[in-house]
Amino acid sequence: MSAPGRIVVSLRGVGKTFESGTVALENFALDVTGGEFVSLLGPSGCGKSTVLRIIAGLSAATSGSVSWPAGEARLGFVFQEPTLMPWANVTDNVRLPIRLARRDDPDAVARALGLVGLSAFARSYPRELSGGMKMRVSIARALVTEPQLLLMDEPFAALDEITRFKLNNDLLSVWQAVRSTVIFVTHSVFESVYLSQRILVMTPHPGRVFREIRIPAPYPRNESFRTSAEYAGFCRQAAEALAAAMSGGGAS
Amino acid sequence: MSERLLRLGLPVLVLALVVMCWHTVVRVFAIPPFVLPGPGLVLSTLIADWGLLWQSLLVTLALTFEGFVLAAAGGIALAIIFNQWRLAEYSLYPYAVILQVTPIVAIAPLLLIYLPQPLAVLACAWIVAFFPVLANTTLGLNSVDHNLIALFELCKASRWQMLWHLKLPSALPQMLTGLRIAGGLSLIGAVVAEIAAGSAGAGSGLAYRIAESGYRLNIPRMFAALLLLSLAGVAIFFALSAISHLALRRWHESAVGRER
Predict the structure, then answer these.
(1) B-proximal residues of A, 71-110, CB under 8 Å
(2) CB of B84 within 8 Å of any CB in chain A?
(3) pLDDT at A111
(4) Averaged pLDDT of chain B
(5) Which CATH number characterizes residue A64's domain?
(6) In what order do the strands lie in the sheet containing A7-17?
(7) Measured between CB atoms, does B172 come within 8 Å of chain A?
(8) 8 A C-beta contact, residue A75 and residue A144
(9) Is A16 contained in some domain?
(10) Which of A88, A134, A176, B93 might form a disulfide with A92, Cβ 3.0–4.6 angstroms?
């Protein structure tokens, strides 16, 4: 749970230059409100992932600041790959974060597995699961700590479209159920429109926010939203913004 | 199924052919047993001298096992130390390599001067066997999935947790490969040391029996002892392979059958 309406995390003038000299981010600003579902949309190499890693503390910003007005949030992180431990079964993979924090709780693991619909596979090993199921395990692992802020780095990019649609729907119901804040990184226009309340379209080299698009469509969203004219309109708006961002429209 | 039959049947067939050739050559050319004993004589010597050879085998196996355990413990411990403290790796790794590349046959006589004989044999077994454990475990500890490391950092895992819950399990396949190599090598180390010691006239291991039989031109016993030694090596290899398979069968590609 995160307090709705209050700013959870705020990035100001964040820049990141890698040791190789590549400027990944420049003067990046972002405010995320409690309970919100925000997507960062942009081509690969525009620094979207870097934003998440900086928020998570996995990478340090070269300039600017990250602040937590309501106190540092409990984080959940979902990587691009499932990143499971192959030697551990589903239960042990999901309980890893609480085990490391010495707050082991079988109920929390069962709840997280229930949320992603994998209760029947608690004792399976990752290699016995499909790509989509592995990603569900990865999401359950991120949920097990009941995070206030869920950071997702192109989690469904490697999945086929049918699996992705299914996981999109499931992610939205999980989000509605746990009411956490989500920052979702993607390079898919359709995915970002379907999922988010707000999309930040980013420019590449260096990464900056180019345009903000609000998607005021109500939740729950489902397949009828995916086929609506309203959805098509937002997709067009986002696609145009993305095209403009990529053709080097530096100014926002 | 038929492939399995071939895999078992063909080596047995080759063995039968070689033994038959061996037997025929000895018969046809009437080679005396002190030059080359026939397979029948080797087998009967093995049975006749079983009491003596079995005792010697146990001595050699005990030293091999002790050397292996010490090599496994030493190799794994050193790999962990290297992984945790870079400076330790930089300072010690070159010497581990030197110890490995210097032929053990050359080191064994020296060790026999400074150490009591059983200890010298043990030291030889250890020197030969610890390096593959060290090298493979080090490789395993250094090839952990970077995203998993990031996840552990995100969970604020302590160094110890990172080692115990992530690095060691993830290095297990390489570690087991190292151990499998070390099993055979510790037998070699023990045998080399025993032969070196045997020429000084002491000891009771199987390798010593080989050396002794050689001096006495008791070639059939030499062959019988050699046969036992080979079988011991094969048994060690299979035992370690089985352990490795059991440890990895649920999750590692190397131990999981391919679905067709």
Answers:
(1) 75, 77, 79, 81, 83, 85-88, 96-97, 99-101
(2) no
(3) 92
(4) 89
(5) 3.40.50.300
(6) A23-33, A7-17, A63-67
(7) yes
(8) no
(9) yes
(10) A88
Nearest residue of chain B to residue A92 (CA atoms): B165
Is A135 contained in some domain? no
Alpha-carbon distance A141 to A91, whole Å? 9
Place of tokens 């070689």: B18
Beta-carbon contacts of residue A82 (< 8 Å; ≥ 6 apart): A126, A131, A134, A135, A137, A138
Q: Any alpha helices (H) in chain B, and if so which ranges?
A: 2-28, 39-48, 50-84, 86-101, 104-114, 117-142, 146-154, 159-161, 168-198, 206-215, 219-248
- Per-residue confidence (pLDDT) for residue B257, from 0 to 100: 66
pLDDT digits (tens, 9 = 90+) for B60-110: 999 899 999 999 999 999 999 999 998 998 999 899 889 888 888 888 888
B151 and A77: CB-CB below 8 Å?
A: yes
Give per-residue pLDDT as tens, A127-137: 999 999 999 99
Q: Which of A75, A85, A86 sits opposite B154 (nearest CB)?
A: A75
Asked if B170 has any chain A CB less than 8 Å from its own CB, the reply is yes
Residues of B in contact with A100 (CB under 8 A): 152, 155-157, 161, 165
Residue A46 amino acid letter: C
Pairing of strands A198-203, A181-186: unpaired
pLDDT digits (tens, 9 = 90+) for A35-62: 999 999 988 777 888 999 999 999 999 9
B155 contacts in chain A (CB < 8 Å): 96-97, 100-101
Read off the pLDDT of each residue in A95-102 and give the average, rounded to a whole number. Answer: 92
User: From the CB of residue A161, how many other CB atoms can be counted at a distance below 10 Å?
Assistant: 10
Specify if A130 maps to a domain: no
Pick the range with the lowest mean pLDDT from A217-231, B33-47, B179-193, B201-215: B201-215
The answer to whether residue B253 neighbours chain A at the CB level (below 8 Å) is: yes
pLDDT in tens, A154-195: 999 888 988 999 899 999 999 998 889 999 999 999 999 999
Interface test with chain A among B148, B154, B259, by most A beta carbons within 10 Å: B154
Who among A58, A88, A99 is closest to B153 (CB)?
A58
A62 within domain boundaries: yes
ipTM over 0.90? The verdict is: no
When computed from its CA atoms, the radius of gyration of chain B, rounded to whole angstroms, is 23
Distance CA A21, CA A198 (A): 31
**What domain count does chain A have?**
1
Residues 6+ apart with CB under 8 A from A199: A38, A39, A40, A41, A192, A193, A212, A213, A214, A215, A238
Backbone angles phi, psi at B119, to 5 degrees: -65, -40
Q: Which residue of B has its CA nearest to A88?
A: B251
Q: Select from B145, B155, B250 the Cβ nearest to the Cβ of A125.
A: B250
- Enter the tokens of residue B158: 């302590």
Q: Which residue range(s) make up the domain with A70? A: 1-74+182-252
